[in-house]
Amino acid sequence: MVARRKVAVVGVALSDCGRVDDATPYALHAQAARRALADAGLDRSLVDGFASAGLGTLAPIEVAEYLGLRPTWVDSTSVGGSTWEVMAAHAADAIAAGHARVVLLAYGSTARADVRAGRRTGTLSFGTRGPLQFEAPYGHTLIAKYAMAARRHMIEHGTTIEQLAQVAVQARANAALNPEAMFRTPVTVDDVLAGPMIADPFTKLHCCVRSDGGAAVLLAAEEYVRDCRTTPVWVLGSGEHISHSAMSEWPDFTVSPAAVSGRLAFERAGVRPSEIDFAEIYDAFTYMTLVTLEDLGFCGKGEGGAFVEKGRLRVEGGELPVNTDGGGLSAQHPGMRGLFLLVEAVRQLRGECGDRQVRRVDGSLPRLTVASGTGGWFCSSGTVVLGAG
């Protein structure tokens, strides 16, 4: 039996993000990919694996062609916002087994610019085929599904709207430390509560921003690490899980699929949630952060509200900094944002985050992190545990 190789993230990058009116999604893919390769210091010719989703009729073939790649390993898994954690897991397995040497994950979207230019509407529709046909007549928009789940948590566990608002407040506090964040002006709980209602109980600031942007992550086999200009960040363990499509098939609105993907990732990495220095969690809505914290094991079920209201999620003074760049609630959210979680996680472990840099109690750089993406309306989850080189 051939020994499985260790796998490291050796390059990460963002494209231009926020308000980008003069680029196509393909251009943002390419910009992020070039920057990630430059970050790693590896030649494009070494890339023999490519993963992407969300763009083109034959994704990721069209994007690979645009980038000038002819990969011998490819992945186009598309499970919403958790796509990139799932793809990272698949890529790490492929590299470890010897099926690829260097894999590029790339994403780009002009979601904001498209709405402004009238190329699409502001409402995301998944159509009415399959199971969705039974929910669409009742107005089950994407945000309504998340709002229903949040309300169920409030009813069953006594979670308050003020506690949910704290997630947005602390995300904005972290974004204030990030010069690349789209929104950096501090907000209060009162600001969140006073905003226009979008879907009860969510007001505007409970919801992610709409932006343009792209990201890229480069994974490589251990023998290529010595050729890279960056400190490696090792993939220690991963897990993935799908829960439901129809809301009627979701057994418990207060339990996300991260309860399974997180358990698997921690078990395979051989670490405990208590050892994690910071976390990057998909946050299209405030409730996603709260329930994912519970399901990853950072607090008990129903204790998320009390956990977040103590300021624990802040980079400055928080016990468990979460979404250290400001997350989808404040930094950027161009669509399937899971790849941005991995970029920020790697930059933090490498100590490259300036004013928002996480430090341990003794002042040293963080050693362990978890990135957990959620897709659909809590339909899927991918969780990756990463360790510093």
Description:
The protein has helices at 25-40, 61-67, 83-96, 111-116, 142-157, 161-175, 189-194, 258-269, 286-295, 304-308, 327-330, 338-349, and strands spanning 7-14, 49-51, 73-75, 102-109, 197-199, 202-203, 213-221, 233-242, 278-281, 368-375, 380-388. With 389 residues, the protein is of the alpha/beta class. The strands form 2 sheets. It has a 9-stranded mixed beta sheet with strand order 3-2-4-7-1-8-11-10-9, with helices on both faces. Strands 5-6 form a two-stranded antiparallel sheet. Helix 6 crosses helix 9. The radius of gyration is 19 Å and the shape is globular. The mean pLDDT is 95.
Secondary structure layout:
Elements: E1 7-14, H1 25-40, E2 49-51, H2 61-67, E3 73-75, H3 83-96, E4 102-109, H4 111-116, H5 142-157, H6 161-175, H7 189-194, E5 197-199, E6 202-203, E7 213-221, E8 233-242, H8 258-269, E9 278-281, H9 286-295, H10 304-308, H11 327-330, H12 338-349, E10 368-375, E11 380-388
Parallel strand pairs: 2-3, 2-4, 9-10
Antiparallel strand pairs: 1-7, 1-8, 4-7, 5-6, 8-11, 10-11
Strand residue content = 15-25%
**What gap, in angstroms, lies between the N and C termini?**
27 Å
What is the N-to-C succession of helices and strands? Answer: EHEHEHEHHHHEEEEHEHHHHEE
**Main sheet makeup:** 9 strands, mixed
Mean pLDDT: 95
Q: Give the CA-based shape.
A: globular
Question: Residue share in helices?
Answer: 25-40%
Rg, rounded, reads 19 Å
Number of helices: 12
Which segments are poorly predicted (pLDDT under 50) over 5 or more consecutive residues? none
How many E-type strands? 11
How would you classify the helix and strand content by structural class? Answer: alpha/beta
